[in-house]
Design a protein that fits this description.
Layout lengths: L4 H13 L2 H11 L7 H14 L1 H21 L3 H5 L5 H13 L3 H27 L8 H17 L18 H12 L6 H14 L1 H20 L4 H5 L5 H10 L4 H20 L7 H17 L9
Helix pairs in contact: 2-3, 2-4, 2-6, 3-4, 3-10, 4-6, 4-7, 6-7, 6-8, 7-8, 9-10, 9-11, 10-11, 11-13, 11-14, 13-14, 13-15, 14-15
Length: 306
């Protein structure tokens, strides 16, 4: 995800005197929405707890397993400290808790998938670095597909649902639906959880929060215009890929973020029409496309490293 070294350096003194492990876990949760900030992670944890305490536990389990595996595998200390080594584990744990109906099985898969996400993430990050691309949630998508496909084929553990769906009853239905889209970026649901996620992103960078909110709104508007049921909008299913795509491309400017948001929404629509459970794949693909296009249009300056 997007690294924010300034936050790491600002808190090094505190890490030396207290709670580096907890800070690393919280940063891992913050990196789900591309912010290497412990405060963001705390807000993400609050959003998950508002939805279901089991989700909060699954995220912490997955992140802890991923960070331990990353340490054993010799990942860079900076990647572990900033949460980049742990966030896919947190996502994998959330996916397991959300998609598996059996609670005990979900907990076991959360631990295994969280660790596997870290083992996959290191080599994948090095390969994508050649193209100056971030892996984003790709390791989580890989490990989730690895257990989901055989489970689905066997029919032994039917999925509870593809993504948490909750009915929003806020008086301002449009704003509530957009906030629900922000909540779905971390597998939470509902406008209050989305407000927690938005506040967490704003703690790290108010500009990033504006892009996330705008991305969720634009993607939701496009999907509603293309026939997505209002129930899906209320649940946040129409906005979360757009929010993540806008965050991932915000550094490239408003035009790039707009293009990434629209492409992510279009890919999500296409996957839904084909009956494919895309999860966060549309955001990953859209972000890669926009970053690669920006590099083609603006080649690096002579002598630049990359």
């Amino acid at each position: 995800m997007l690294a924010r070294p300034s936050f790491a350096s600002a808190h090094d003194a505190h890490d030396a005197h207290g709670w580096p492990a907890l800070r690393t876990l919280l940063r891992s949760l913050g990196q789900i929405v591309l912010q290497a900030h412990a405060g963001t992670g705390a807000c993400v944890l609050a959003a998950l707890a508002l939805t279901d305490r089991r989700l909060a536990c699954a995220a912490l389990m997955g992140a802890a397993a991923a960070n331990v595996c990353a340490l054993v595998a010799g990942h860079a200390a900076e990647a572990i400290r900033e949460g980049r080594a742990g966030f896919n584990g947190a996502l994998a744990g959330l996916a397991a808790q959300t998609l598996i109906g059996d609670t005990s099985m979900a907990a076991a898969v959360a631990l295994i998938a969280g660790g596997a996400g870290a083992w996959i993430g290191g080599p994948l990050e090095r390969q994508l670095a050649r193209w100056r691309l971030a892996p984003y949630s790709t390791p989580c998508l890989i490990v989730t597909a690895a257990w989901r496909l055989p489970m689905h084929a066997s029919g032994l553990f039917p999925a509870a649902h593809d993504i948490l769906v909750a009915e929003t009853r806020a008086p301002l239905a449009l704003l509530a639906g957009v906030l629900s889209g922000l909540a779905q970026t971390v597998f939470a649901s509902g406008a209050p959880a989305g407000a927690c996620v938005l506040a967490g992103v704003a703690l790290a960078a108010r500009r990033a929060a504006a892009f996330a909110l705008g991305g969720a709104a634009l993607a939701s508007a496009l999907e509603l215009a293309c026939g997505t049921p209002f129930a899906g909008f209320d649940a946040g299913l129409a906005g979360f890929n757009g929010a993540l795509a806008a965050l991932a491309t915000a550094a490239l400017g408003q035009r790039a973020a707009f293009c990434a948001t629209m492409l992510a929404a279009a890919l999500h629509l296409a996957a839904a029409r084909c009956g494919v459970p895309a999860l966060t794949a549309p955001f990953v693909l859209a972000s890669w496309c926009v970053h690669l296009t920006a590099r083609v249009r603006r080649p690096p300056e002579p002598g630049a490293i990359g």
